[in-house]
Amino acid sequence: MLLMVGLGNPGAKYAGNRHNIGFMALDRIAADHGFSPWKSRFQGLVAEGRLGDLRVTALKPQTFMNLSGQSVGEAMRYLKLTPAEVVVLHDELDLAPGTCRLKTGGGHAGHNGLRSIHQHIGEDYRRLRIGIGHPGHKDRVSGYVLSDFAKAEEGMVDDLLRGVSDGAAALARGDGAAFGTALAARVAPAPKKPRVSEKPPAAEKTSEPEPLSMTDRLRALGDRFR
């Protein structure tokens, strides 16, 4: 069994925020893979289903980001799981938009949701780091993560979420290579086709016979009457 957690803040006000990409990804997985309807449990919203051969409990903590660990810890203990059986989907400032990286253990890098989870279950859980890019200066981070994706980014975000969903079974079983392949099929740019010249090929020039001299013309005329 696996506990799959998406991080975000509850409520319509935050639904489209970059900080909520974990919620978005988990919603797409649950919808695409036929999970049960969401219901309130473990200080969050829970849906159940299967990814490949694994039974999965999907959890979206409703405690707000900074207290996510309360919900995750309660669910993990009730389900009698270990941190190794928990995978957390979250936004990552240090990755470019449209990219993902898998990681097990390690620090929280200042992410408040991960910091809270560290406090409640330790650091030995798996993470799917979903890139949202960095605003360029630390003073702009708070406003940036709590702002919605730009209109021009919507196609990229949709492709990314589809890729994460396509690779969800591989993610659940810990097959990073297969997950990466599924993701790349959605987000990698299509190879460029060779440019075809619109100009038709130039016609080959044929050499024209040189004009006959007057002497040659008279000689040809005389030959006709012989």
Automatic annotation (TrEMBL):
<feature type="active site" description="Proton acceptor">
    <location>
        <position position="19"/>
    </location>
</feature>
<comment type="function">
    <text>Hydrolyzes ribosome-free peptidyl-tRNAs (with 1 or more amino acids incorporated), which drop off the ribosome during protein synthesis, or as a result of ribosome stalling.</text>
</comment>
<feature type="region of interest" description="Disordered">
    <location>
        <begin position="186"/>
        <end position="226"/>
    </location>
</feature>
<dbReference type="InterPro" id="IPR001328">
    <property type="entry name" value="Pept_tRNA_hydro"/>
</dbReference>
<keyword id="KW-0820">tRNA-binding</keyword>
<feature type="binding site">
    <location>
        <position position="112"/>
    </location>
    <ligand>
        <name>tRNA</name>
    </ligand>
</feature>
<dbReference type="Pfam" id="PF01195">
    <property type="entry name" value="Pept_tRNA_hydro"/>
</dbReference>
<comment type="subunit">
    <text>Monomer.</text>
</comment>
<feature type="binding site">
    <location>
        <position position="66"/>
    </location>
    <ligand>
        <name>tRNA</name>
    </ligand>
</feature>
<dbReference type="InterPro" id="IPR036416">
    <property type="entry name" value="Pept_tRNA_hydro_sf"/>
</dbReference>
<feature type="site" description="Discriminates between blocked and unblocked aminoacyl-tRNA">
    <location>
        <position position="9"/>
    </location>
</feature>
<comment type="function">
    <text>Catalyzes the release of premature peptidyl moieties from peptidyl-tRNA molecules trapped in stalled 50S ribosomal subunits, and thus maintains levels of free tRNAs and 50S ribosomes.</text>
</comment>
<feature type="site" description="Stabilizes the basic form of H active site to accept a proton">
    <location>
        <position position="91"/>
    </location>
</feature>
<comment type="similarity">
    <text>Belongs to the PTH family.</text>
</comment>
<feature type="binding site">
    <location>
        <position position="64"/>
    </location>
    <ligand>
        <name>tRNA</name>
    </ligand>
</feature>
<keyword id="KW-0378">Hydrolase</keyword>
<feature type="compositionally biased region" description="Basic and acidic residues">
    <location>
        <begin position="216"/>
        <end position="226"/>
    </location>
</feature>
<dbReference type="InterPro" id="IPR018171">
    <property type="entry name" value="Pept_tRNA_hydro_CS"/>
</dbReference>
<keyword id="KW-0963">Cytoplasm</keyword>
<feature type="binding site">
    <location>
        <position position="14"/>
    </location>
    <ligand>
        <name>tRNA</name>
    </ligand>
</feature>
<keyword id="KW-0694">RNA-binding</keyword>
<protein>
    <recommendedName>
        <fullName>Peptidyl-tRNA hydrolase</fullName>
        <ecNumber>3.1.1.29</ecNumber>
    </recommendedName>
</protein>
<dbReference type="GO" id="GO:0004045">
    <property type="term" value="F:peptidyl-tRNA hydrolase activity"/>
</dbReference>
<feature type="compositionally biased region" description="Basic and acidic residues">
    <location>
        <begin position="195"/>
        <end position="208"/>
    </location>
</feature>
